[in-house]
Protein 1
Amino acid sequence: MSPFLHLHAAHCESGVTAALLRHAGLELSEPLAFGLGSGLFFCFPPFVRVMGMPLVSFRSYPGTVFQLACRRLGVQTEQRKYASEARGIEELDQLLARGVAVGVQTNMFWLSYFPREFRSQFNGHNLIALARRGDVYELSDPMLKEPVELDADLLRRSRFSKGLLAPRGALYFPLRIPAKVDLGAAVVAAVRDNARKMLAPFPIIGVRGIRRLARHVRAWARREDEKRQRLLLGHVVRMQEEVGTGGAGFRFMYAAFLQAAGELLGHAPYLEASERMTAAGDAWRAGFAGTAARIMKGHPRPGEDVESAAELLLDCARREEELFRFLLANTPRTASVPVAHALASR
Amino acid sequence: MREEEVPQDASFYRGHQRVCYALNKDNRYVVARSAGWEVERVATAQALLELEAEVEQTRRRVLAGERSPLAYHLATHQMTPKLFAQHAGVASWRVRRHLKPAVFARLSPRLLERYARCLALDVAQLARVPERASHVFLEDEA
């Protein structure tokens, strides 16, 4: 088997998916892997608290990007979870001894190679295990420029951490790439699925979830003291930017996916949607996050306050609603396209 | 976001770079690398300073004899009593009781051993807290 090529990516799971598929012989960019796994999302559920802060997620449930991307491409996969730690460690070591590159779900707190500031009790971080040498694992973490080494005990703690999204030692990898991959059909199905999720008639997810967040931000302005307002706004900005989203809560990565999809299929509406997605991303970043940061620092521009930050969220929601409706209305009629060039590395 | 607008601000990345996607001159998406973004740094610093304040308050309460050292170590590990209870395989009401100094002082060596292992400490470390205030999450001011 060819040596594993490390991929420095924007987001852990789409990076792991692209790198594992490339290693198995199916060359895909990170945005394509992300889009094919319908990774763009928004979720703002009630009651769920993470370290005293409401859960705000810009991504789909951990694990689904890999699963959906592989399913749509017809790639067979193997996925395992463990009740027993010993068994989970043994099976990972056996796979590595056979030379398999294995996707692993981990808790970030124990990954000592990250700066201390970014290590939190978050169970949805994905990376690739490459080899084990004695008490050290060689890992390919898509958030880093290069592969790293990690103490075996720390990886054990990380894989078998408890709490929300507990990984239970989860391992996954592609087994077999089909001889023919219909990338066009996979892209069309993925875009449609993602649009439906973003437009779903549930008040806590997708565009309606963003509107719900905007309502809550407005309520913070009335109910919370100034310090708590700043912490809450900062929390949303962290979820949008800090956790590895490629900018603007994955919106730029999805715009890159739509651009690639439009070029692949020769479908102009995808290209237009890509431009509109970029504009939505700019609204998240320069609009909402920029305003929030000025409020946090205590010198907002004239007219800027928590209420106006909520207005900016509504602007993001409006842009995304229009763009996903546009995508649903402009599905390409024939999905099938030749994809020889998508399989460059075979 | 345009490629030339990708922020290269001071950050907590410590030489790490973050990949993001931006448009180049021909309006094509390319991979760009960011050294950090001021907006994100402000949000991170603010959240971490809040955590530091909580840890420091807990440390003082431990030294004042109001809480057991376990409370301090849970705070530095960003664990709630409930989450820690799941790791240790102990009922969470018991963990909450063990946050009282008097109850903690009577814990069996076996249970202390198990608690220490869960937090990647040794038993001696588990039983004490730093004498002086120091940052736990912020290694230095970025």
Protein 2
Amino acid sequence: MIQIFAFYLFASVVIASGAFTILARNPVHSVLWLILAFFNAAGLMILIGAEFIAMLLVIVYVGAVAVLFLFVVMMLDIDFAELRGGFMKNLPLGLALAAVFLAELVFGIGAYRAGNIELGEHALNPARMGASNIQAVGELLYTRYVFLFEMAGLVLLVAMVGAIALTHRKRAGVRPQNIGSQVRRRPEEATRNMQPVVGEGVEL
Amino acid sequence: MNYALWFQLASPEIVLSIAGLLLLLIAAWSSDKSARLVSILTVAAFFGALALSLNFLLADGYAEGADAFYGQYRMDRFAALSKVLIFLSAIACVIVAPKFFARDGMMRAEYPILILFASVGMGLMVSAVDLLTLYIGLELQSLAAYVLASFLRSDDRSAEAGLKYFVLGALASGILLFGMSLLYGFTGTTSFIGIQTAFSDGVSTGALFGVVFVLSGLAFKISAVPFHMWTPDVYEGAPTPVTTFFATAPKVAALALTMRVAIEAFGGQQSVWQQIVIFVAMASILLGGVAAIGQTNIKRLLAYSSINNVGFMLIGLACGTPEGASAMMTYLIIYVAMTLGSFICVLDLNDREGRPVEDIPKLAGLSRTRPGLAAALAVFMFSLAGIPPLFGFWGKFVVFDAAVAAGLIPLAALGIAASVIGAFYYLKVIKVMYFDEPADVIAPSDSTARLALIAVSALFVSPLGYFATLALSPITEDAARALFWAA
């Protein structure tokens, strides 16, 4: 009973926050609604026992992607009113695309139900049936696929080195603060004793 | 589970990875001042990995090869031979780079390190017996290659080449991944042996789509027609040492990978992929020959030449026999020597202010101003054209011989006809160098390392190279046999 209640709670909040994401006038509010939608989708995932995907959704989508969106929305000077002006113009195209996606979905599920697609058999590991997703994925990742896991780490390292190699440069003409030299400075280097003569003005 | 043996089998990649991580620390602490030291240490690491691979190639104990990491990685003679070729070309590309980049003050420690990591990826590619290993190796190599292509970031052409390569490479990776997911979905496994077993009683339509998409993605990586469009632009725009690298090591890796995928994973259903390979081979030979005729930039010309050569090598694969695979490896060895030599010759073409010269008309009369260089370039061009006394002829000969033995006589005939077309543009370069009025733009060489590398590769492709066949043919035959061991 509580599961059915939780399902309808999460599902209706996902749909509502999804709708508010596109209806909200303020783009920052849109992103906040999107984050709410992600959280509730994570709740739905937990309900069907896919807790690993739920965590990924929160960590990756909320933690990284949505925050990135938020930064983009707040930092860039985009005129959203103008963007929204194109909404009515693009509406027929959007509806047509939505119809195509829906038709594909129905067709795909229908073809699969009709049993015309024979997918390969994949053996499930009976010993791991009771384990949680995270445990099962982790065990595979750090034992069977440990070599590939380390190599995937190298791929990320190369991406990082590449980004730095291509964009990092020493800028000429910038004068960063040098605290050491500021502290070392003596009064003699910074001040001069002058004897201004009356009526002659001051020399700077 | 025998981790000691597994680490030993994967030792070339492990040595290179650890060296790369340590050199990255040196580079981070002492910035670009250490570029020279890092280059020297990189070459040393490569020689270490080379020695390990040579041990696998020549020692008696590894005739059949062995699997590591739960059947995801295999070290056999085929992988070892490919690795030797890859590491040798990478060493040459590290050695020739500092002089080229020094002119712009752009020699940075990241260059040898990226080549090092790309070589780790290529080692994975040639040892891959699982789709996951294949993909991670390919991405590691490609990602480093995208950065290398735009390494001269102040140069617009280099940046353009990097961007173009990145976008098209990402597209190819997507195509490859799509094919791999179809294969996994319809066979239920990612290992090559598993796919072969699943294919033993016919290929379903879905899996057939997977095969086509995987082969398309790989055809992009070996720049075979119709997925070759990026090659001339990237080869022209990338800094010449990087182009030298692209034309040699990654080509070897991707071709070896294609062979392993076709013969081990799809080996049971040869008719499925054979027609694709035959079409790609024919199209590459024809387009590589015809499109090169109008080129005036020598790097573009060599790019089309590499497309053309890939076509000839694919004839060996199209045979689907151990003889074909052995012929392909022989061709690959000769191709690496010819390509390294000709690109290092291009690196040596500088005007009096040290700017690189890439226009073919400016080479006019090179035989009188730089007779040695002109002779070397002529040797490489004759060899690429496959003109008999030179070693390049031998590569074409064994490939056509295997094709005729496998009954692909029309393909062999077309290849021979197209190599005549190809000969035209190679000979045009020689004509410009030897018979035109001297343009006198090329300055004397300023690098003995380059001249030494040119001399070594010219000696290898000269008729003296035929003595090497005595040593090479047992090695290539062993490699081909290792490839067919599982099939």
